[in-house]
Structure formats: C-alpha cells, structure tokens
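Changelog-adjacent note: as of this version, every example in the card shows the full chain rather than a window. The one below runs 249 residues end to end.
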Amino acid sequence: MTKILAIIILSLFSLTTYGQTKMRSIDELIDNKDPGWAIVKGWINSAKNKVEILPVGSMKAKDALYKTQVTTHSPMGAIVYMTGGLLVDHGWIRILGSGSSKLSRSLPEWNRGKTFDDYGQPTPYLLIADDVIGGMFILNGGGLGSDLGKVYYLAPDNLEYEPLDLTYSDFLNFCFNNNLDEFYKDYRWKNWKNDVAKLKSDQVFSFFPYLWTEQGKNINKVSKKEIPIEENYRLTLEYRKQLGFDMQK
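Full-length structure tokens:
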C-alpha cells in the first residue's frame, strides 16, 4: 500500500515542485504486468456499500489516463482507465474515472481550469470525488497542507477543508465499507434514496437555507433543488470568499 501511495504522489504532484514536465505516453502509463484494477475490483466485490462500476470506452479511457498521468498500477490510474467512474451507496458519492453517459465528467477534465490550467501543469490538489449534497473530496498535492497525498473533504455544512487523514486507497475503502449513514447522519433526509435515484450524476442538491447557516441545520426542514455541479463548485468558492476563508483556486 505504501508503494502504491508513493507512485500516486510522485506521478501527480512532482509537477508541483518542478513545474510543467514532458508528459508520459499512454504506453508508459499502462501497466500490463501488475495492474491495480485487480486489487480495486477485489475491494469492490467485497464492499459493504453498493458500488456501481460505470462502463468505459477505450478511447476515452486512454485519453483520460494520458491527461491524468498516473499509471494503471495505482488504484487511481486503474479507476480512470478501467471505469467511467464509480457510484457509491445508490449514487450518493461519485468517484471520478474517465467519464460515461451517467457521469460525464472525467477526472482530468473536471480538474482542468479548477486545480490546474492545462494538463502537465502543477497540481496543488486534485478533485477526486463528490457527493449529492455538494461536498467535494480532494487529494492534497501540497496546496492544502503538509500532509501530501491525503484526502480532504470540502464540507457543505461549514465550507471548510476538513482533513480526513486518508490516502486515496484509504478513501476508496472508506467509500466501500464505511458506515456512510453515520458519516452523513445529519444530512440524509427522509426518502433520500428516491431523490438521489432521480438526480443526474453531474448535478447536486442545493439547499435553502444553506447548510452552513444556523437555519439550515435541519435537513428535513430546508428546501432543495437540483443544480449543475459546476455551479455548485463556483458558488462554494464564492461563499468561502464572502465569509473570509482563505481561498484555493
């Protein structure tokens, strides 16, 4: 596991130190001898929570892997190359892969213009997954703290980057096996499964009063509507700015 984490960190975040570098070819990124997908698939098969593997097209998979610049030996590279993404717990959490009809965002395309301007440029952090209430899971590349390679949660109930002390592999196992009812205990309303089933995976629920206000703390008393996740991302950063938080790009 330590070796896998080191590969992810070196692949993604050496760019932060050295600036834009020559991008590795797709052949260099595909590991046929020791692919990580066998490990990830085993985790999914034994998962306590429901995990839906979204289909992937060969060309999209190669394009996304090339733009991500992570080898398929790593869990992240395996998910990008072998899946269109993963939907966890009836679609409550969306883990980004290469994109599909149900989850059109690929991991590299979703990050472009947010965590970096163009492929091959420094990556201070990486948006790796999100949930239906507008929370975002972020892999730290040094831009969020000294705990390089650890996952943060940009929480919709306080708009803060919360360190989860999880590596990417730990995060997958958190999604697959953790008691998500407990993690989201204050933010799962009655009949949430029916509402989530109707929600597109490129949308989130927007709540009013906002979840980060005192009036928005009772999830069963706020109103909600579907909005594009792109809109949610921009609004979250704008609210952080208005409230005086230190801003990340």
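Structural remarks: The first strand starts at residue 51 and ends at 53.
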